[in-house]
Amino acid sequence: MKKILVLHTGGTIAMSADEDGAVAPTDQNPMAGFEKLFDNQLIIESEEFANLPSPHITPAVMLNLKNRIQQAEEDGIDGVVVTHGTDTLEETAYFLDLTLPNNIPVVVTGAMRSSNEIGADGLHNLISAVWTAASDDAHDKGVLVVMNDEIHTARYVTKTHTTNVATFRTPTFGPIGLVSKHNANFFQELIRSEICDIKTLVEPVYLLKAYAGMDGTLFDAINQPNTKGLVIEALGAGNLPPATLPAVQALLDRNIPIVLVSRCFNGIAEDVYDYQGGGVKLKQMGVTFCQGLNGPKARLKLQVGLSAGKTGAALKEFVSNATS
Ligand code: ASP
């Protein structure tokens, strides 16, 4: 019988609502006891790894989680499910995807409705995630996110709605599978990417979002002696307002790596436009274009690359292509 480890980290899936509808963490995880639903089918071990709302999750917590999952594989666990708050779920899932040299499936899930709300989705998502982690077909697909009967890659999934249970979507590429009853059905393969089995974290790496009329103020603010990197969610295909350029150049002059993604929901960033602030000029300045990732994930990729000791061309190569 397969052995699945469920690591609870907190979030709405572990919370309850009071009479006024305010949602807060609980002492007793409402998912406790769900293991009996798998009697005679799977061996389920559960662990309260943390009880944090996901806005409290940091890369340091993600690194501890990665270490715990590696230990689980050494201990003979066949698959791991992580329950997590949905606000930063995609970031933890992608951090694990970038750093885990795992062979066992790792599936992250959560809930949009707390345990005692009508239509609560937590238990259903947890059951779907366990069946996915137990699936022979879940190997070699990177870390997976299972929510609302869909299987997404950690690399491309994102939270798209503040409250709807169908919030997790994969723009441009779509989900790679569906969960039906006890079966995880896969329809797409993920192109493998480099794993960085990091032990420590390089910080701080910042993320800024571009807007019409943006100037250099925010770029100057993060141009600090200890700044290690910056990701910019740029306009359209990958362009910036011209008033930002002197401050961007000042960061590059200090050899601070700058990675650019698009703030658009769909598509990839490319050096298309050859006007002041256009992508062609930004690339010539030394900005690295990252294709397919959103801003928070590109930020993690840059941080993980730096934490792996990558610099210069090797760092550019690692960050520039989502599949490298
Ligand atoms: N604010 C909650 C969290 O991320 C949302 C959720 O879990 O769905 O912890």
TrEMBL record:
Domain L-asparaginase N-terminal: 3-190
GO BP, one annotated term: asparagine metabolic process
One term of GO molecular function: asparaginase activity
EC number(s) recorded for this UniProt protein: 3.5.1.1
Catalytic activity field: L-asparagine + H2O = L-aspartate + NH4(+)
Top-rank lineage group of the source organism: Bacteria
Catalytic class of the enzyme: hydrolase
Family assignment from sequence similarity: Belongs to the asparaginase 1 family.
Protein name: asparaginase
